[in-house]
């Protein structure tokens, strides 16, 4: 039915276009030199069709129906040209002269509250990402599509698992206990992008890393993205904009480029997803320890080519015909599995290197996205409609994502001065995955319940085949080679446990605008954002630990969030005199939000495989992974008034003054109101002083100061009562509610954190705009930090929040744009450089350090006066006064009792360079990213080496003994105690002091390669289509980390914990690479 309808629509549109169709042709030249200009874009605005000039500057657009049209001509380094042409019964010719531009690449940018302003008037830096840049990355998650695209914008991922979490941080961290995530604004309305992490250090309820809710946005429906970084740019958003603002304009909410008539676009992409982090496994040694065979979770056994049966003890069964040692079968040699597999009891098993576990377990996943959109209108009505479906299989078994997105937007000009617009968006997202939360990999769950399947895959000894049976045919439980069956087979985990995430989201806005006069407009906007997220963690009976998972487990969490946003704005723009201009916005905003969470978990399953709480014996409303109640209700309100005024003089100097006053419901009345002012100045030197230079053609200098605040979480100022509606069941079977006072003491004197930022910058253009360089320096100070302070438990409370401490963060951003070649072959270069340095200047209250993230109480990210924010602390080696390590009597390093600094996760700088080559309808682009420095505590690297699996451990003679350098703690002399190579790697570099597991993350990456081709106009004109584009893209195709063991295959772009943490990797999943192609059709 859909195909028939599409055919009818196509034929109707085709018939209308063919009737009375003519052509528009012409030639484009340089107005000053008369030279032909190749590669110029010539577009008919109403038809959204056009052509690019050839080597002689000529263009031709065929099949143009009779009518009046606007012709738009654009070319890098030249002023935008626009003219009106009328075509009747014959072809017409239009010759065009372009004037070299001394100004910007883009003249108008979107700023706070959707205000369109001249870039030259801004006293702060603004970064933009186009729709094509987002779509070309072909990522289901917008945050991943932004990776490496903007200086000062860091995107951290917990791994490459489909649907896994991401975090965005702009210009570094500035708060200890609050969120450092930026504000997301979609079509002028706040969009909740939180990860909804559940009470667990693994930040996913012990089983998952929750997705950033930017996943609910359809990248295919995004028109453009603008990032406001500094406080002078975000002050109108008040407290919510303190971490930067990402402004997203959707196609369904944008009507700037929508012309009369209708245009239909269809996009289809198919991509493959593979694991990109691949260890280089050694094939010399097998399972065991100290060169002896044993059913261990290590690979320090005999050589595969050994002829010594003594190394195998009672497991030696003889030699095969080719001399390979034969042992007992992994499932037929111990009571845990032998009874279940009697047929394997006498089976011989070749002691040889088996299939790489990466190849044996992981797969090549397929991702497909289909998008259909219709845009256009008649008379005073403009409409955009879009539907998109994304289906993606991850590289991990039983990991997939499905998203259905629908959006519709309409704008109607009721009168010449009254316009109404509205948009509605719906996103339905479902994610399935095996457990992938942070973990050490020595089982499906540690004693705390944190769960990950990946360690059990990567740690597989080289002589164990992952393709052996994984499920006990009698009990249905895990079957593996370990004598105690205390480690699950990863395939059992993938097939018998999992995490689901299902989210239904609805958001949109309605806006009414009245142009009171030609200079004054009043607008009212109502925005809403509502979603329900249902998560579950399930496991069949037959796991190995912890105890509450053994007999079956089921946990469900429902999170509901709703927000309403009202704003009333007055915009004005006056030309006061010939020299002075005055424009601005004055407005008010009121927002309400409500977040409600319910949950339940059940243990001891009755009927295997049926996951319903009624199918379990024991239920609880307490989260086993965090020992906290599932039930939570948070309501908050924020009201604000704001103004932004700009005074311009002769179009070369602009003074911007802005301010906002907020009132917070989360604070007590005396501290509820706070005002934050902002000021910035923009000065176009080249418009004021004629430099008479053909080299330096545009110079803009700007400076600004901005302020903001950070309010505490709800209920931080009052003592609260915890309620468990299913506290316990009495002997009569009645459910009894349990109430308990919180151990947290509310602080009624709590105030907002205060942020102040200074920014200076320059925008330089050379060679008539062919080369551009923008440089920005900022320094931000945060005082009155909201900090959790301990209290003597004798008071009945254990902690409270106080205002103490100060953090400073300063950095430099550089953005380079250049067009070295601008003829029929056009070459564009874009480079981003970013470096920053943070310092904790004060904590107060005699606090020596505060943990801000990282997972463990004895390992994590901390704030320490005089040190960079997020400094990493962990266990260290005992050293004497000269810094020489002390060695214990067993020959291993001695570990200090207290933790100390083990690394700084903040990189020295990051650099990204992209190149794009265009020739007629073909375009080739690639992006290379580089990071210098940054420390990472890596479970991946240390554990693979500790277990003797990678080629890094194959480069030493395992029959030799080793002496660790240092001083004997007993004799005070040089250490002489010999230890085995397995003790060196396992007891010291693998599971010894944390400082030995920290690595420098300097690396280079081929982020993306993309090749696209537009079918020639003369070919498309013979079809029912206006434009056809084919493209192939590869993402994360190659990476090299310089200072990690090369056999580990580790990808530094993994941040397992997320949130306010950096530099810790706990096997939440390897990185992914994507490659595939797409076709885009417009008609």
Termini separation (Å)?
A: 20 Å
Q: Which class best fits the helix and strand makeup?
A: mainly beta
Helix content: under 10%
Radius of gyration, in Å, reads: 32 Å
Residue share in β-strands = over 45%
Number of helices: 12
Unreliable runs = 1-19, 102-106, 198-207, 443-448
How many strand elements? 60
- Indicate the mean pLDDT: 87
Coarse shape: globular
- Major sheet: 22 strands, antiparallel, barrel
Q: Could you please describe the fold and organization of this structure?
A:
The protein has 1083 residues and is mainly β. Among the domains are: 2-98, Sandwich (Immunoglobulin-like); 260-403 and 452-496, no CATH class. The protein is built from twelve helices and 60 strands. Helix 10 packs antiparallel against helix 11. The longest helix is centred in the first third of the chain and has 17 residues, at 2-18. The radius of gyration is 32 Å and the shape is globular. It starts with a helix and ends with a strand.
């Amino acid at each position: 039915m859909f195909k028939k309808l599409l055919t009818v629509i196509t034929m109707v549109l085709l018939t209308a276009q063919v009737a009375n169709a003519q052509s528009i042709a012409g030639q484009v030249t340089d107005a000053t030199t008369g030279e032909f200009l190749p590669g110029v874009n010539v577009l008919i605005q109403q038809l959204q069709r056009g052509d690019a000039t050839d080597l002689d500057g000529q263009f031709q657009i065929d099949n143009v129906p009779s009518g009046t049209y606007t012709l738009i001509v654009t070319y890098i380094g030249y002023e935008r040209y626009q003219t009106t042409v009328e075509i009747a019964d014959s072809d017409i010719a239009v010759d065009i002269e372009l004037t070299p531009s001394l100004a910007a690449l883009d003249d108008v940018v979107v700023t706070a509250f959707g205000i369109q302003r001249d870039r030259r008037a801004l006293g702060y830096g603004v970064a933009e990402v186009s729709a094509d840049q987002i779509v070309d990355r072909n990522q289901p998650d917008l945050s991943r599509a932004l990776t490496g695209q903007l200086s000062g914008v860091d995107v951290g991922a917990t791994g490459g698992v489909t649907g896994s979490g991401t975090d965005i941080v702009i210009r570094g961290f500035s708060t200890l206990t609050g969120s450092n995530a930026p504000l997301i604004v979609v079509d002028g309305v706040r969009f909740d992008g939180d990860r909804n992490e559940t009470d667990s250090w693994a930040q996913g309820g012990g089983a998952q890393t929750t997705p950033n809710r930017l996943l609910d946005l359809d990248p295919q429906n995004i028109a453009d993205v603008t990032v406001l970084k500094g406080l002078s740019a975000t002050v109108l958003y008040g407290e919510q904009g303190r971490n930067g603002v990402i402004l997203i304009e959707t196609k369904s909410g944008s009507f700037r480029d929508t012309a009369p008539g209708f245009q239909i676009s269809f996009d289809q992409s198919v991509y493959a997803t593979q694991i990109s982090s691949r260890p280089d496994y050694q094939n010399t040694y097998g399972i065991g320890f100290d060169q002896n065979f044993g059913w261990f979770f290590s690979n320090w056994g005999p050589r595969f080519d050994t002829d010594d049966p003594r190394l195998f003890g009672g497991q030696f069964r003889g030699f095969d015909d080719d001399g390979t040692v034969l042992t007992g079968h992994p499932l037929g040699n111990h009571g845990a599995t032998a009874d279940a597999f009697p047929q394997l009891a006498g089976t011989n098993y070749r002691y040889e290197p088996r299939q790489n576990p990466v190849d044996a377990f992981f797969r090549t996943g397929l991702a497909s996205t289909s998008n259909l959109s219709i845009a256009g209108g008649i008379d005073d009505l403009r409409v955009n409609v879009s539907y998109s479906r994304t289906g993606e299989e991850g590289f991990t078994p039983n990991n997939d994502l499905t998203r259905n997105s629908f959006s519709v937007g309409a704008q109607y000009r009721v009168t010449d001065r009254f316009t109404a617009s509205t948009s509605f968006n719906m996103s339905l997202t479902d994610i399935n995955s095996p457990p992938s939360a942070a973990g050490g990999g020595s089982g499906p769950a540690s004693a705390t319940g944190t769960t990950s399947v990946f360690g059990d895959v990567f740690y597989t000894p080289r002589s164990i085949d992952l393709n052996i049976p994984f499920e006990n045919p009698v009990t249905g439980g895990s079957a593996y080679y370990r004598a105690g069956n205390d480690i699950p087979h990863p395939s059992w985990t993938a097939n018998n446990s999992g995490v689901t995430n299902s989210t239904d989201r609805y958001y949109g806005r309605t806006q009414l605008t009245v142009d009171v006069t030609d200079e004054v407009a009043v607008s009212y906007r109502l925005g809403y954002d509502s979603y329900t997220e249902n998560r579950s963690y399930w496991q069949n009976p037959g796991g190995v630990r912890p105890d509450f998972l053994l007999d079956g487990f089921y946990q469900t969490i429902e999170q509901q969030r709703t927000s309403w946003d009202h704003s009333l704005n007055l915009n004005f723009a006056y030309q006061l005199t010939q020299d002075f201009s005055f424009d601005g916005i004055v407005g008010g905003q009121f927002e309400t939000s409500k977040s409600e969470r319910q949950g339940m978990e059940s243990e001891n399953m009755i009927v295997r495989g049926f996951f319903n709480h009624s199918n379990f014996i024991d239920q609880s409303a307490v989260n086993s992974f965090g020992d906290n109640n599932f039930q939570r209700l948070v309501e908050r309100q924020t009201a604000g008034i704001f103004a932004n005024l700009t005074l311009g003089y002769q179009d070369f100097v602009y003074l911007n003054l802005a301010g906002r006053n907020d009132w917070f419901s989360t604070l007590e009345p005396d501290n509820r109101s706070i005002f934050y002012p902002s000021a910035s100045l923009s000065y176009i030197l080249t418009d004021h002083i004629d430099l008479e230079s053909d080299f330096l053609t545009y110079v803009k200098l700007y400076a600004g100061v901005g302020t903001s605040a950070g309010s505490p979480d709800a209920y931080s100022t009052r003592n609260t009562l915890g309620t468990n509606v299913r506290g316990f069941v009495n002997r009569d079977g009645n459910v009894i509610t349990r109430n308990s006072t919180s151990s947290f003491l509310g602080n009624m004197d709590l105030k907002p954190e205060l942020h102040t930022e200074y920014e200076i910058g320059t925008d330089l253009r050379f060679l008539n705009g062919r080369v551009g360089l923008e440089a920005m320096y900022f320094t931000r100070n945060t005082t009155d930090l909201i900090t959790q302070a301990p209290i003597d438990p004798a008071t009945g409370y254990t902690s409270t929040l106080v205002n103490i401490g100060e953090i400073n963060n300063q950095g430099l951003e550089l953005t380079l744009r250049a067009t070295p070649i601008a003829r029929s072959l056009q070459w564009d270069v874009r480079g981003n450089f970013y470096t920053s340095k943070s310092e904790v200047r004060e904590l107060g209250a005699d606090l020596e350090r505060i943990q801000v993230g990282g997972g463990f109480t004895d390992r994590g990210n901390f704030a320490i006066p005089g040190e960079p924010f997020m400094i990493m602390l962990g266990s260290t080696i005992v050293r004497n006064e000269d810094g020489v390590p002390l060695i214990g009597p067993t020959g291993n390093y001695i570990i200090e009792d207290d933790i100390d600094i083990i690394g700084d996760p903040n990189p020295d700088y990051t650099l990204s360079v992209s190149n794009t080559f265009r020739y007629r309808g073909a375009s080739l682009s690639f992006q290379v990213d580089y990071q210098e420095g940054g420390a990472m505590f890596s479970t991946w690297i240390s554990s693979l080496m500790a277990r003797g699996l990678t080629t890094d451990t194959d480069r030493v003679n395992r029959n030799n003994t080793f002496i660790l350098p240092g001083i004997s703690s007993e004799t005070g002399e040089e250490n002489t105690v010999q230890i085995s190579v397995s003790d060196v790697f396992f007891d010291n570099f693998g599971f010894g002091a944390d400082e030995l597991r920290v690595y420098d993350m300097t690396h280079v990456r081929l982020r993306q390669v993309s090749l696209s081709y537009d079918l020639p106009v003369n070919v498309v004109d013979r079809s029912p289509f206006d434009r056809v584009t084919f493209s192939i893209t590869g993402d994360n195709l190659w990476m090299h980390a310089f200072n990690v063991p090369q056999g580990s295959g580790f990808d530094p772009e993994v941040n397992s914990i997320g949130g306010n943490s950096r530099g810790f990797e706990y096997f939440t999943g390897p990185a992914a690479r994507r490659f595939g192609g797409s076709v885009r059709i417009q008609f």
